[in-house]
Amino acid sequence: MLCDLHIHSCFATGNQTPEAIVEEAVSKGIGLVSITDDDTMDAYRDLPEIAARYHVSFILGLQVSASYGGHFFRLLAYDCDPENPPLNDLLRENLGVWHDFGGELVLILSKDHPELSVDEYSGYTKDPKHGGFKYNSYFFDKGLDGGYEAGVKRFKQYQEEMTGAMKFLRFRPVEEVIEIIHDAGGRAIIPGGYLRNAETLAKDIENSVHMGIDGLECFSPNYSEEMTQTALGCAEKHALLITGGGDGHGTWAKPETFAIGVPEIHAKELNLGTIRVYG
Predict the structure, then answer these.
(1) Per the CB 3.0–4.6 Å rule, which of 14, 48, 273, 277 could disulfide with 8?
(2) Using CA atoms, how far apart are residues 111 and 24, in angstroms rounded to an integer?
């Protein structure tokens, strides 16, 4: 069975509904999915019914913001209790951090784009069809490109100001986030995009094991075949879970690279341990 356990929906930074995600998965022969939205599990209000209708299995998932070594980091979390109070407190806190960060980006860009307003942004409601965070959607609605690639270009254009804005991304330390994930009954996985230096990958994974991680996303569009094999070797050495996914965001972020079913992953290649599969 083919699977993809790293997908973003319109409830966060993607621009596909859960039903559109499942439809695309089915069209690609994928029978097991997980929607791993940033700091929210809202997609799971709809997904169980949709998955049952399409005869697709799913795993409860999300992606949680954190800090590691003073830098922005993320963790994939699977099989968490969506009603767990400490987890929900953390997610609300993280979404607040993203809101404040967006306000700072709006302030930076407003110097060259007077049509942007921090006050207007504060009262703005994200349009789910756009993808990205609230500030990305706001940029789209103000006539600017709010896509992933545009964001990368802006970071380079306003590098000094953007670097300063990063101080607003004050998330909890990754060790504390892992404890909260475990308290919610979940498993904490390092995504492929956050340990991606091919020359130091094995050492970086070794250094991260002490944090209490449960597994690695070994199959990722961010990894070459060599890096995948390195990650698999480390997972076997440390008895870690093995997951994989395409990091798809619909059309918001490079769909030719980050997409459902890219790379092609067979369930037999994974080690999900006791993570529950529904359907």
Answers:
(1) 14
(2) 41
